[in-house]
Structures are given as C-alpha cells and as structure tokens.
Amino acid sequence: QAGARGMSTSFAESLTQIASERQAERVEREQREQAEAVRAWQAHEARLLAEAADVVKNECRRAAEQEQYLCAIASIHAKVRRWPQAHPGGGVLSWAVALPPGAFARATQSQDPELWSTVNKYLVLKLLEHLKKPEFGFKEVSKNNESILVAWRRPDEPSAKKARRESGNVHMECSICQQSRLMRAVVPCGHLFCGECLKEALPAGVPNSCPVCKQASHGTQ
To answer: What is the spatial distance between Cα 169 and Cα 161, in angstroms, rounded to a whole number?
Structure first.
C-alpha cells in the first residue's frame, strides 16, 4: 500500500501537467493562427502588387502621352486602395508580413506606426522587384526619396529584349570575377562568363580562346 501511495500523482504534479498541456495547446493554436495570417497576407500582397502595377502603368501612359520616357510616381501608398494606411480611421487592421531574416511580424497598424513604416518600405521594395520583371520591359526601375521612378526606351534605343540578348540571359556567379551577373557563352565551347570579364578575356579584333578550355573562340552569345 505504501508503494502504491508513492507511485500516485500528487495534486501539485497534476497542476504541472495541466499547465503544460494548456501551454502546448496555446503554442499550437498560435502557430496555426500565424500560418493562416501569413497565407492571408500573401494573397493580399499579390492583389496589392497587381493593383499598384496598374497605377504605375496608368501614370506611365499619361507620361508617354506627353512625349516623356520617364515617369515618377509619388506617394504610391496613397494611390493603391489595398495599401495599408498609417491611420485607417475605421477599425483596426491587422496583418502579417515576412521580415528579414525570415521572422514573421504581426501587429496593428493604428497602434504601431513603426511597424507601418517597416511594412511600407517592405511593400515598396516588393513593388520595385515586381516592376523589374521582363513582362513590363522597363529600362530602369528605381526609388528616389518617396517616388518610384520607371523609364522606358526611346525610339533610337534597342528594345529590352534585344538588350537582354546582347548582355546575356543566365544569371549566375562568374568563375573569373566571382560576382553574380548575367552570363554570356563562349562559342563554340559554351563556357559561361559575365560580359565584363569576356570583354577583357576576349578583346575584339584579335584571335581569342576560351579562358577555361583554351579552345579557339568564334565569338560569344
């Protein structure tokens, strides 16, 4: 009987078990809610970027009508309906956003202006990445203070497709300079190097050979 009593769980130990179980349930619930919030944000972000891109296109069309080849879009956050605002006015909007180095931050924009500033910068960077996609074909996409700058080619300049073909179309680390750049292939061996290194390794007007295999080069592509 004494042994049986010694093996029984004390009241305090049962409390420890209850608290531990509730903690595990809470952690699981929070992880599930966070994952759902992140998915919701990612879907919202995709719609937001599409809407922002439409705003940029409309501004660029107006600039092109004025015979311009450059457009500055100021205060993009104020022109996109889905863009989180610093002071939403009605209710409290919550969101989740991926922040470096991969941590997820969640808060309310009306109560945390610092987070709104971080999210605003994050979205501007995401929009810049979005506008640099080949489907837009802009010659330049950059940020200047509070404005997004985009430029497109003039009639006497090569098309974006031709420029990409001339500068290379594979992005990787060059074995010569060790920098991540657009690669060009040596013909006929096919070894890849960045355009800058090839200019030095294969000067125009003289017989050349591949820097790696030493095979005679007939040019690059």
So the answer is: 10
pTM of the model: 0.56
Choices 3.30.40.10, 3.50.30.40, 3.40.50.620, 3.30.70.580: CATH for 168-220: 3.30.40.10
Is there a contact between 183 and 171 (Cβ–Cβ < 8 Å)?
yes
Q: What is the pLDDT of residues 107-164, one digit of tens each?
A: 444 456 666 677 778 888 899 999 999 889 888 888 877 789 898 888 876 665 555 5
Return the SS3 of 151: strand
Provide the 3-class DSSP secondary structure of residue 116: helix
How far apart CA 157 and CA 69 sit, in angstroms, is: 11
Parse the chain into domains and list their residue ranges.
14-151, 168-220
Quote the tokens at residue 22: 């509730």
N-term to C-term CA, the chain: 89
How far is the C-alpha of 218 from the C-alpha of 221, rounded, in Å?
10
Confidence of residue 199 (pLDDT cuts 50, 70, 90): confident
